[in-house]
Amino acid sequence: MNSKRLLIVDDEESIQKVVSLSLKMEANWNTITASSGQEGIRQAEIHQPDAILLDVMMPEIDGIATFEALHRNPKTKPIPVILLTAKTQTSEKRLFQKLGVAGVITKPFNPLTLASQIVELLNWSL
Amino acid sequence: MPHHHEACDSPFWSTLVDTQPLTASSQLMVTNVLTRMASHPAQANCIFAIHRRKLVGIATLQDLMRAIAQNNQWQQMRLSQVISRPVITVSLAELQTELNTIGPLLKRFVDHQISYLPVVDDHNHLVGLIDESRLLQLTHSLPSATITSAVASLPSLSQSDELHRQHQRAQLFAEITFKIRQSLQLKTILQTTVNEVQRLLKADRVLIYQVLSDGTGKPISEAVVPPYPAILGYSFPEEVFPKEYQTLYAEGRVQAIADVHAPESGLAECLVEFIEQWGIQSKLIVPIVHPLNTELSVGDAPLRNHLWGLLIAHQCRSPRRWSDFELELMQQLADQISIALSHGQMLEYLEERVELRTVELTQANHALKQEVQERKQVEIALRQSEEQLRLITNNLPVLIAYVDRNQRYRFNNQAYDYWLGQSPATIYNKSIKTVMGAAYYKNIRAHIEAALAGNQVAYESELAFKDGRCHSVNVVYIPHVETTRNASPKIKGFFALTTDISDRKAIERMKDEFIAVVSHELRTPLTSIHGSLKLMATGRLGRLSEEGQQMLEVADENTDRLVRLVNNVLDLQRIESGEVTMEAHACDASDVMEQATESMQAIAQQHDLEIKNQSVPLLIWADPDYIVQTLTNLIGNAIKFSAPGNVICLSVCPHHDPVLSSNQLPELVDVTTSHCSPSAAMALFCVQDHGQGIPSDKLDSIFDRFQQVDSSDSRKKGGTGLGLTICRKIVEQHGGKIWAESQKGEGSRFYFTVPLCHRVST
């Protein structure tokens, strides 16, 4: 499988580290990290990652607003976005999916199956 | 007024005949008759009823007294109801022919038992009245005279002393009668009588002896001149006054004894001796016969003559020959006493009536006072009750209103003024639309109409208060149903209760925020810990010692457990708060079962268990995600409690639940646009294991939160104690039921139902 590069946008550095390590270990993917919505948008524009893992609850610009901004920006619009959320309610997941995100992964996730979940959501081959 | 006749001009008339007898119309009221008689100068003792100048009846004073005594309503009586008829009369012609002597004339009085004889002309017009007493007076002075001769002799008599004396005596009699009638008190009347008789007759002793019912008697009034002893108060034994004497006296016998010692007196010697103690030489006895009425108050009770007593005159200084006049005077006075007795009786009766009536009136007055008192108390109680109600309704922090069928306010509590700035007085009889505004009314109109259709309604709304701020309110409408015996229930209006729930809403918002924060803040570090441990546990980040590896696994397992617990707590809270929206639509039960089986397959294999899916195509009306969650929870439990090598079976079939009817269908959000709807029939899901089973006493409680068969299960099996509670909440929100059947050692079966889908044909 071609090596992928994913952008992780999460205000929690520990999460960034676990996700990065998990994806490296399980799929040998490279990751870029951003600690806020604004930084995430900027990084996405610059690095054009294969996918973005976006936390929902972040200060200032939350995940939804960040996603909408990414979606409005022609440069970042094609990049698939997967929301990483601690919000577990089914109705919320449906709401997120309606926004046009590629998928929703609930926290806490299993780092051993995270990569395979992403592959499944994005129809990639591992 | 009697018709004038030429005979009236003769002196005879003025002596024998009363040419001005008292007359009245037969229709005159008895009260007026009495007045007229009392005011008559000659103290009339009778009155004639005249109709068209003809004589139609006579009423004596006694007749009138009797009528008064016998009739409660005598004030309404007319003279015609009292008079006797036909009247015994004498014509002028008769007076000039066969009755021209006093003897036959007197005989007529005796024959007819009358005291008054009216004289009429040929046309039956009243021309005068012959009074028996007058006739007797005339008889006394002219014992053998004929009327004609009397008429002829009158001029010479009128000049004689005798006539003068008689005239004086008649006047005296009138005076006595007048004096007697001055009083209504019997005692006074009797004393006046004896005093006056004694004075007039110059008798030594005059007394009234009352005959008692046992045959004895006693003097009750006496006038005695000194030095003769008084008899008053002395009781006379029965032997003195035997029964035969009483009978004779009752028939009107008069006894005049000139000398008690004379043999012709006929008195027994013992009696003479007996009376000698009072020095009696001569005596005159006349009976006082009184018509006895024992039933005064009962209308026309029969009357009978009763010897009430005797009027007795004694001469003590010497024997005395009693004149006819004296005898007649005594008789007349005895009659007067009889009348007085009637009066007295009537007075007594009237007093009794007055007393009775007074008692009745006092009782009525007392009853009225009591009633007034009771009414006052009821009024006070009502006022107090009303004040209390007003106090309560005005001080409750809710809007209370009563709205009639026409959607007009009929009652509002003071809170309308405090909250909305609209006083109850200004709102009264105004429509809801006017008071609340057209825009607000538009939002609540459906609820109002539902309440007026007889349904209890509850809804939440935002209401602008007088300070301009919007408050969240909870509104309840309770229909006022009037049930009558024969007619069907009628909706008269509804009661509206509005509660300010702004504080509750604020708390709810705070709770939501808190949960959101907890959800995030708890899961974020958990995610890091969980992820790190998982990665470390792979051993690819470096090998740990065996003990280190064991500790890592402990940390990993317990983090998993903590993650599940946090997830379950949050899930349950959201479902219970109603925050969760389950979106029902038609879905295939086998698809749902497939998803659940698939997600649990890996774990089952880890435990060396097989999941056997016995699904059949069955269209259910449910939110598939939540049914998958329910099945997953149940399969997870089955895995935990099954021994390796066992099989877990999933099945589904149609199920008829007699309890569930169409009006109890789940309150899920219908997201379908297809032609489907929930059906009354249900789908029955079953998850069966062959594990250790559940004791029968735990079968119900296991669905309650943190209730497990064994409290050590949560530690041994890593359960949270919330999984089955969440399952029950999900199933109940679908309108279904969940239960378990089990036999210890043979495994368990968990059942739940959800509505089947009913396909609507287009």
Write the layout of secondary structure elements.
The complex is a heterodimer of chains A (126) and B (762).
Chain A: E1 5-9, H1 13-27, E2 30-34, H2 37-47, E3 51-55, H3 63-72, E4 81-85, H4 90-99, E5 103-106, H5 114-122
Parallel strand pairs in A: 1-2, 1-3, 3-4, 4-5
Chain B: H1 11-16, E1 17-18, E2 23-25, H2 30-38, E3 46-51, E4 54-60, H3 61-70, E5 90-91, H4 92-96, H5 102-112, E6 116-120, E7 126-131, H6 132-141, H7 147-158, H8 161-180, H9 186-201, E8 205-211, E9 217-224, H10 243-250, E10 255-257, H11 269-276, E11 282-292, E12 304-315, H12 324-395, E13 398-404, E14 409-412, H13 415-420, H14 424-427, H15 432-436, H16 438-452, E15 457-464, E16 470-482, E17 490-500, H17 502-537, H18 546-576, E18 583-588, H19 589-606, E19 610-614, E20 619-622, H20 624-640, E21 647-655, E22 669-670, E23 676-688, H21 713-717, H22 723-733, E24 738-743, E25 747-759
Parallel strand pairs in B: 2-3, 5-6, 18-22, 19-21
Antiparallel strand pairs in B: 1-7, 3-4, 6-7, 8-9, 8-12, 10-11, 11-12, 13-14, 13-17, 15-16, 16-17, 18-20, 21-23, 23-25, 24-25
Widest beta sheet: strand line-up of chain B: 9-8-12-11-10
For the largest beta-sheet of chain A, the strand count, sense and barrel status come to:
5 strands, parallel
The biggest beta sheet of chain B is recorded as:
5 strands, antiparallel
Q: List segments of chain B where confidence is low: pLDDT < 50 over at least 5 consecutive residues.
A: 143-160, 294-303, 659-665
Number of strand elements of chain A = 5
Biggest β-sheet: strands ordered side by side in the sheet of chain A: 2-1-3-4-5
Give the termini separation of chain B: 115 Å
Percent of residues in helices of chain B:
40-55%
Helix count of chain A equals 5
